[in-house]
Amino acid sequence: MTTNKLNLPDLGLGLGLRSQHFNHILEQQPEVDWFEVISENFMDSFGRPRHVLKQIVERYPVVMHGVSLSIGNTDPLDFDYLKKLKALADEMNPAWVSDHLCWTGVLTTNSHDLLPVPLNEESLKHVCDRINIVQDYLQRPLVIENPSTYASFRHSTIPEWEFLSSMTEETDCGLLLDVNNVYVSSFNNDFDPVEYLEGIPFDRVVQMHLAGHQNCGNYIIDTHDREVTKHVWELFRLAWQRTGGTSTLLEWDGNIPAFDVYHAELLKAKEFMSGDFNGIKSVEEEDQVVEAVSNPIHFMVSETRDQLEV
Amino acid sequence: MAESTNIPLSSFQQWMQQMLLDPHGQTEVDPMQVLPGAFQGGGLESVINDSKRLPAREHLAIYQRSYIARLRDCMAKQFSALEYALGEELFCGFADNYLELYPSSSYNLMNLGAHFADYLEDTRPDKDDPLKEEWPDFMIELARFEYATLIIFEEQADEDFVLAGDQTPEEELRLIPVFYAFYFQFPIRWFYSEFVNGNKPGMPYAQDTFCAVVRRNYKLALFDLNPGQYYFLNYLKEGGSVSEAKQLLCKNQGFDSGKLEEVWPVWKEKWIEQGFFRVDS
User: Fold this and answer.
1) How far is CA A117 from the centre of its chain?
2) Do B5 and A155 touch (CB under 8 A)?
């Protein structure tokens, strides 16, 4: 079934593929609708991760989600990166390929962060031009995710939801709506998350993300290391109604739990999709003073030691 | 949103990146210099908004703290045995300084620690002293080995081969595609294995050691070698046959041919059992 303009399918409820769960998935074949894989984990891997992925795609639908396209970057597009991305996509045949509205570094430096783009006419044209080039190169639509942000800029002149709307209109790309990112960014940058959702072109949303975050008191960090909070589930419910049903994925990148715990948290989404969520135990916001890291990436480092006979 | 003087996107990105890479302004680069004239002399408040809860400086600080913490986490994961050996605090100091000198230039995180062992060698505290301490040598050697295991784990190689058995003719024995023999000045294999097994090894004394790293069915395994085995296996690795490797071992390393014929059946049996050999096809 599809309800989006890109005619991309509703895959159901999916999980991020993490190396800690490789053996469980291969051995138990759990009833998960689909998996999202981090593209960069497999593009240059010719060892066990890629070997496992080949087995996963035989059993499950897969989506490729990247963190290094750097669509907002003013350095030239990295065609070496794109070539490897395309090769992986051609081999794994994902339902779609996504990345973030961000930049990762300039002058050949890579911060490995999803850095915020000032939102104005110049950046809109720049991002749209690059999306068009990438879509032509990959020969498939690109799906762009709203990032979590921790700052706004004085020379931004377009609200993020309007930027995303114009971007999809100009390029025919899809949207990956991360409702946790909407909540995190709204808290950090003083906007109304419901107003944000009202400005989203839901006919372009082909996927949603859910994740946990850490409230540090006067700001929130997108840690992906815990259960989804009550506020984010509420935004998910609102967004879900607007989409009419779309592929939904739970991200969990730090303190990664056992597969069954991860899956159980995802399945809570069913209750919010049906509107019957009064009996669901969801997590309340709790202020924490422990310093948190945004966009954790250490889970992307290969688990060499776990595959070692010593 | 309020209209404001524009900053070209490229200038903004250079400014923000410099603020991340040099949060304390320790270099001579003034990030404000890349911004348009109207911003010269202004603070970061002329670029970043205050919010209800945080001043502009604190908003930027979230990115600054996360930048180094995120990459430090990755370094600690790539060099977990080294982090244990150095202790967390000292490792962090080295990692932070390394990331400052060698900021990442690759989308591939595997490349993050590619120069770390060289960095440790270049910055060792006794670099200019005629008498060297042992511990830096150990740490550098451990760093090189840990990084090598990462590369070997992800290496592109044919895994679809037939392992040799007891009956495989000797002339058909070939090393499996992912096979490496290492020489160390310290018992690196022992230390690494102890660490991986959850033990708490102390820093060992210097001692020449040798080990093999093999990858079969996408998993790594480590095996101790003696010096003769190390050279013999390296000759095989270079593409020679068993008989050629035997000749080279005797010719280049002075190994006694009679003794070699005595030990070879033992080596062969053990290495076939350990999966070092495939059948030449």
Assistant:
1) 17
2) yes
The pLDDT value recorded for residue B42 is 79
pLDDT at A285: 66
Residues 260-289 of A with CB under 8 A from B: none
Question: What does the pLDDT read at residue A279?
Answer: 54
Closest-CA distance of chain B to residue A2, Å: 33
Query: The domain at B157-279 falls in which architecture?
Result: Alpha-Beta Complex (3.90)
* B29 contacts: CB under 8 Å, gap ≥ 6: B18, B22
Q: Which of residues 242-261 of A touch B (CB under 8 A)?
A: none
Residues A282-292, mean pLDDT to the nearest whole number: 66
Question: Residue B174 to residues A120, A178, B170, B233, B246: CA-CA distances in angstroms?
Answer: 62, 52, 9, 10, 14
pLDDT above 60 for A217: yes
Among B4, B21, B56, the residue with its CB nearest the CB of A155 is: B4
Q: How far is B258 from chain A (nearest CA, A)?
A: 33
Contacting residues of A for B159, CB less than 8 Å apart: 51
Q: ipTM of this predicted complex?
A: 0.93
Q: Looking at the partner chain, which of B9, B52, B78 has a beta carbon nearest the beta carbon of A301?
A: B78
**For the domain with range A13-307, which CATH number is right: 3.40.50.170, 3.20.20.150, 3.90.25.10, 3.40.50.620?**
3.20.20.150
Closest chain B CA to residue A156: B1
| Domain assignments of chain B as residue spans, ordered by start | 72-154, 157-279
A22-66 pLDDT per residue, tens: 999 999 999 999 999 999 999 998 999 999 999 999 999 999 999
**Cβ neighbours of A40 in B, within 8 Å:** 107-109
The mean pLDDT of B216-234, rounded to a whole number, is: 96
Q: How far is B247 from chain A (nearest CA, A)?
A: 31
